[in-house]
Design goal:
Helix content: 25-40%
Strand content: 25-35%
Number of domains: 1
CATH class: Alpha Beta
Structural class: alpha+beta
Shape: globular
Oligomer: single chain
Distance between the termini: 26 Å
Radius of gyration: 15 Å
């Protein structure tokens, strides 16, 4: 799927799978470069401990129920610059690991990734989608609230659950 074409810049969204060897190889390299900073890793995956370990990552998030998980990557000129996953459930699907490389932020690309992953949820018949976001991750909170998600704060938690219902 083509997102937009600008002067010498083409963005595409592609579905990948952590069950495919070639996709794993590419994503290992990409994620290792993104998560060299513990703060960045903590924003994307607060329960995951630094330093980043790709094998632990895939075992923790992408091993069980892989058939229910859809992952999209955003590419610019065939280079991965963004990533988002959704676990499809009948009642309440969950978006996780939404990330956009820092130099590509502020261009509306994250909202386009979010809209596209929501479409996967809608097409699957899910009744709502939720995401858990660190309370101090203001950029991500703003992204979800601008997209129509409503906050459900959890007491004594560092995270906020954001929910979007479909009719």
């Amino acid at each position: 799927m083509l997102i937009s074409t600008m002067v010498d810049q083409e963005y595409t969204l592609e579905e990948i799978s952590y069950s495919r060897k070639e996709d794993r190889r590419i994503m290992e390299s990409v994620l290792k470069s993104w998560f060299t900073d513990p703060k960045t890793l903590n924003f994307v995956s607060p329960e995951f401990k630094y330093p980043f370990d790709f094998i632990r990552w895939t075992k923790l998030y992408y091993k069980d129920d892989i058939s229910k998980i859809t992952t999209l990557v955003l590419k610019q000129n065939n280079w991965v610059i963004g990533h988002v996953s959704i676990k499809i459930e009948e009642e309440n699907s969950k978006i996780f690991h939404i990330f956009l490389n820092q130099e590509h932020r502020g261009k509306g690309l994250a909202i386009k990734m979010l809209n596209e992953i929501e479409n996967y949820g809608k097409e699957s018949g899910t009744k709502s989608i939720q995401a858990s976001v660190q309370k101090n991750n203001r950029i991500c909170l703003k992204l979800f609230t601008r997209s129509g998600y409503r906050s459900k704060s959890l007491k004594n938690s560092k995270s906020t659950v954001l929910v979007k219902n479909f009719k």
